[in-house]
Design a protein that fits this description.
Number of domains: 2
Radius of gyration: 18 Å
Structural class: alpha+beta
Largest sheet: 8 strands, mixed
CATH architecture of the largest domain: Roll
Helix content: 25-40%
Strand content: 35-45%
Order of helices and strands: EEHHEEEEEEH
Strand order of the largest sheet: 5-4-3-2-1-8-7-6
CATH topology of the largest domain: PH-domain like
Distance between the termini: 31 Å
Number of helices: 3
Number of strands: 8
Length: about 150
């Protein structure tokens, strides 16, 4: 499972809630690509160096992102991905199938506590996003409760 770190949420005009986060694996992948490029430079493998450099630049400019949207108008939870690992056949989760949205402790990063948001559905748990503690989670919980109950 890929972990996505979100820092804030937005409430849209119709009451929908949007949470966006970046993939936590971008930094390790970028370091790995830098090491691979160093080895390719030593081997003078210019043909492989160009695509590796292009992919590393792509990840720096457009990192893999996830957007979780509690869409009030469509009455569904949509999870969208952007980047090289996007899911083309993502299926929205109807609000009727969501039993609860819970926040669990998920360790620490950079001295800050992390909270993992998980939606409990009729078919099991769906990972949504990992948020930094202190991102106004009270307002987020209230907004999600309001969106699900409308």
């Amino acid at each position: 499972m890929r972990t996505y770190h979100g820092k804030e949420h937005r409430v849209l005009g119709d009451g929908s809630i949007e949470i966006e986060g970046a993939w936590a694996g971008v930094q390790p992948l970028a370091i790995g690509l830098a090491l691979a490029m160093s080895i390719l430079l030593l081997l003078r493998a210019r043909l492989l160096l160009i695509p590796t450099f292009g992919f590393a630049l792509y990840l720096l400019i457009l990192p893999t992102r996830r957007r979780v949207i509690f869409d009030v108008g469509a009455r569904c939870l949509r999870i969208e991905h952007a980047g090289p690992w996007r899911e083309l056949n993502a299926v929205p989760i109807p609000f009727a199938d969501i039993r609860a949205v819970r926040f669990e402790r998920a360790g620490r990063k950079g001295g800050r506590a992390l909270l993992r948001a998980v939606a409990r559905t009729t078919w099991g748990d769906a990972y949504l996003m990992t948020l930094y503690e202190g991102t106004d989670e009270v307002a987020l919980v209230e907004g999600i409760s309001r969106a699900l109950s409308v």
